[in-house]
Write a structure and sequence with these properties.
Strand order of the largest sheet: 6-5-4-7-10-15-16
Shape: globular
Oligomer: single chain
Number of helices: 11
CATH class of the largest domain: Alpha Beta
Bound molecules: 5-S-methyl-1-O-phosphono-5-thio-D-ribulose
CATH architecture of the largest domain: 3-Layer(aba) Sandwich
Distance between the termini: 35 Å
Number of domains: 2
Length: 360
């Protein structure tokens, strides 16, 4: 059995798998307008950095399709602005959202025929969507090559097929490594408060027959000492220019615990998750509603009036990271020079790939 697609374009509508109710129910919600798409991102119907980017691109395509024809590029840009703003304000941390919107901006600016723009934005969304699966397979191969022998690995949140266009980033590495006989078992942290590890990662891995053990966050140090995993493997929401990485809250804790136990720490992320304009300390961290931690299933689990803090992400400093793996290869022990050199090499390779596609 394989994981259902998180995002489907069908019958001129965007269908999003409602990840809030997985694995109990597999239900799709249909979207026709960009403001509802932005709300779906905010409400966690769809989540995971690459999936959010793909969804935003479809949101822009829906916006263009719902508008009357515009006569100039400037008219299109103005007419699409409210949709763009709604999507940009949905979630602040995953940079894939802004990367996808930037690609939409470039399509709006560069399109040759104004009548054709809705079709071009839809084609772009489909391209971003389908490319992501291939990118993740490449990340999977590069990451799996770093694993030696057969060991446990530790993962956090969900950086799987559900968080991407398919295959996954961290789970892509785990899928490829399992195929190569390098995974004895996966320890999945439950990931409070949304339980992406318990509900999504465990489900994805069980469907693939990859042995997975679910654990509460507080068990991480004990389990690292007991099972001696070879690597912690996580995804990312934003990789900063200095090599710091924003990812699901609790990732930083894991990196510290891993260092203490001599467990290596890998971040698997496409280059669309890199932000060369920012250092880790400046990454905007989403604060989610207090009710996510003061209540469970609508019932209070904390005293009324309690003060609380619910950051959705944290930033792991580069000096706790052994490898950042992208579709273009591996950055070992990341720092600013290595990150910028990797992005430069990636941009040269992607220009060459585009050139080769033109000649095919
Ligand atoms: O709040 P979420 O579920 O969107 O957070 C997701 C994560 O932090 C993932 O680890 C990250 O986006 C990488 S997904 C390939």
């Amino acid at each position: 059995m394989s994981t259902p697609d998180a995002i489907i374009w069908q019958d001129d509508q965007l269908q999003l798998l409602d990840q809030r109710i997985l694995p109990t129910a597999v239900t799709y919600i249909a979207y026709k307008n960009p403001v509802d798409v932005a709300q779906a991102i905010k409400d966690m119907v769809v989540r995971g950095a690459p999936a959010i980017g793909i969804t935003a691109a479809y949101g822009m395509a829906l916006a263009a399709r719902s508008l009357p024809q515009q006569s100039t590029t400037a008219d299109w840009a103005a007419a699409l602005k409210p949709a763009r703003e709604a999507l940009a304000q949905s979630r602040p941390t995953a940079v894939n959202l802004f990367w996808a919107l930037q690609r939409c901006d470039e399509t709006i600016e560069n399109h040759a025929n104004t009548n054709d723009l809705p079709a071009q934005l839809l084609a772009l969304a489909k391209q971003i969507h389908h490319e992501d699966m291939a990118i993740n397979q490449r990340i999977g191969e590069h990451g799996a090559a770093l694993l030696q022998g057969q060991h446990h690995v530790y993962t956090h949140c969900n950086a799987g097929a559900l968080a991407t266009g398919g295959y996954g980033t961290a789970l892509g590495v785990i899928r490829s490594a399992f195929r190569d006989g390098k995974i004895a078992g996966v320890i999945a942290g439950e990931t409070r408060p949304w339980l992406q590890g318990a509900r999504l990662t465990s489900w994805e891995l069980m469907q693939e027959g990859i042995p997975v053990t679910l654990a509460i966050e507080g068990a991480a140090a004990q389990l690292m000492r007991q099972h001696k995993p070879s690597w912690v493997i996580v995804g990312a929401d934003r990789v900063a220019a200095n090599g710091d990485v924003a990812n699901k809250i609790g990732t930083y804790n894991l990196a510290i615990i891993a260092k203490h136990h001599g467990v290596k720490f890998m971040v698997a992320a496409p280059t669309s998750t890199f932000d060369a304009h920012i250092d880790g300390k400046d990454i905007p961290i989403e604060q989610r509603p207090a009710e996510e931690i003061t209540h469970q299933n609508g019932k209070a689990v904390a005293p009324d009036g309690i003060s609380s803090s619910n950051p959705a992400f944290d930033v792991t400093p580069a000096n706790l990271i052994d490898a950042i793996v992208t579709e273009y290869g591996v950055v070992e022990r990341p720092n600013r020079d290595k990150i910028l050199a990797h992005l430069q090499a990636a941009s040269t390779s992607s220009a060459t790939e585009r050139q080769a596609n033109v000649h095919d």
